Amino acid sequence: MSALSQAGPRPLLEVQGVSVRFGALLALNRVSLQIGRGEIVAIIGPNGAGKTTLLNVISGFYHPYEGRIAFEGRERTRLAPPDVAALGIARTFQNVALFKGMTVLDNIMTGRLLKMRGSFLLEAVYWGPARRQELEHRAFVERIIDFLEIQAIRKTPAGRLPYGLQKRVELARALAAEPTLLLLDEPMAGMNVEEKEDMCRFVLDVNSEFDTTIALIEHDMGVVMDISDRVAVLDYGQKIADGPPEQVRKDQGVLDAYLGVSHE
To answer: What is the C-alpha to C-alpha distance for residues 95 and 73, in angstroms, rounded to an integer?
Structure first.
């Protein structure tokens, strides 16, 4: 059952009857999902359930062969990733996708590219508006660095960082784009308990302080139950449950498919 009624406000994101096929494999089978503005929605399911495929469809990396996607009430089913990003959708990846030879600061600055405007000539000579724009972008990036508590590594090449910090830098780069909707693909994979606790805190703070709507894929059920407003469950490319965490936790279909619990 969706947390959004038809009589309520228009969802920020609407995925309606989306199907994706790779050869003979039906990766998503008429999946529908609504995400309301300000929600934290977890997408869970066993390996191969179609979770990352769903994020790839939302972010424009894959296009469905049927169904539609709307963002802020506008059709965007066939848009390419840069156009989707320009609408206000940013994402992180299951495998860290940083520029390993660049510093943390420079990696985060790449997240501002869509926000950069101005004359090529002015930028080349660094005059007037271009200079002011550069300072404004750097000020915003410094705010994110402070927010995520990574001041000490701002000049460190990203490839030298431990995995948990690389994940945090990737989150920072996504936030630099000032997204309305942030897609996180296993943001806590490979982290120890302390790193997971930190990332949970940051996700909740991003949601509240930046007013960012979040959809995340996560395998740690403790994390899912603690930070999510709603949980959608996929199995073999189909959505089998959608509701508040406590409701989903008790759903027998979810227990059978995801938690491996059978009827007694």
So the answer is: 31
pLDDT tens per residue across all 264 residues of the chain? 334 444 567 899 999 999 999 999 999 999 999 999 999 999 999 888 999 999 999 999 999 999 999 999 999 999 999 999 999 999 998 777 788 999 999 999 998 887 665 444 445 545 556 667 777 888 899 999 999 999 999 999 999 999 889 999 999 999 999 999 999 999 998 889 999 999 999 999 999 999 999 999 998 888 999 999 999 999 999 999 999 999 998 888 888 876 555 444
Question: 2 and 80, same structural domain?
Answer: yes
CATH number at residue 2: 3.40.50.300
Cβ contacts of residue 260 below 8 Å, gap of 6+? none
Can you give the pTM of this predicted structure? Answer: 0.87
Q: What is the 3-state secondary structure (H, E, C) of 186-203?
A: CCCCCCCHHHHHHHHHHH
